[in-house]
Specification:
221 residues; alpha+beta; PIG-X/PBN1; Phosphatidylinositol-glycan biosynthesis class X protein; endoplasmic reticulum; glycoprotein; GPI-anchor biosynthesis
């Protein structure tokens, strides 16, 4: 009976994530409702982004300069132009802000971008699955119950502005969630010859126009 009561208490933490906007450039909104939250704790969501989706580190740095988003990206240097089949997983630690409408709720949003996928045979879209984030707490002056929280191996400070060490804790019990699926349009292999021909034609035409303009209006010594 004691075990059941502990598990029931630890399952109060709930995580939801939602993909906003349409197209290849979206906003990922993460919301956390804590069942236990001592005051003075930093709250973060640690999520693994599959190769089909990424966060732009330059865009993230700009948002952090304007205090719009606080996050740490691992690795912090990535190839933005790489297609999905040449990319790697990314680890994102997103610091959450208190929700004014709920005393024990936290949320944050971060821009995410979809990578190009390989052309397919018969289907015109691919699925990118986002697993539920892991909820992390960093409490410098408070204590968390050992039944619900355990030390997490996270080598990062309690905030994106701090450089000091921090002991993060994670929930022992997985929160209720549904995986988010992003549908990405992909090309068809049977159209590859047509696409290549049009690309070469367009490239040749544009190069000819640039060369003509350079010869007509350029000044050569």
């Amino acid at each position: 009976c004691v075990t059941l009561d502990v598990q029931a208490a630890c399952q109060d933490t709930a995580v939801t994530q939602e993909l906003l906007k349409e197209g290849f450039h979206r906003d990922l909104l993460v919301k956390v409702e804590l069942g236990e939250h001592p005051g003075g704790c930093a709250v973060a969501a640690r999520m693994r982004l599959p190769p089909g989706i990424y966060v732009d580190p330059y865009e993230l740095a700009t948002l952090q300069q304007h205090n719009l988003t606080k996050a740490v990206l691992f690795p912090d240097v990535i190839d933005l132009e790489a297609p999905k089949y040449l990319a790697r997983d990314l680890l994102l630690l997103l610091f959450l802000e208190p929700d004014a409408c709920c005393s024990h709720c936290f949320q944050a949003a971060v821009p995410v971008h979809t990578r190009y996928h390989r052309p397919a045979e018969g289907r015109q879209e691919a699925l990118v699955v986002l697993e539920s984030p892991e909820v992390l707490l960093c409490c410098c002056h408070s204590h968390l119950s050992a039944e619900c929280w355990e030390p997490a191996e996270v080598d990062t400070p309690c905030s994106s502005d701090n450089t000091g060490p921090c002991q993060w804790h994670s929930t022992k019990h997985r929160p209720a969630y549904e995986e988010s699926m992003l549908r990405v349009p992909v090309g068809l292999r049977k159209h590859s010859s047509l696409v290549c021909a049009l690309t070469l034609l367009t490239t040749g035409l544009c190069s000819g126009l640039i060369l003509t303009a350079a010869c007509k209006y350029g000044h050569f010594s």
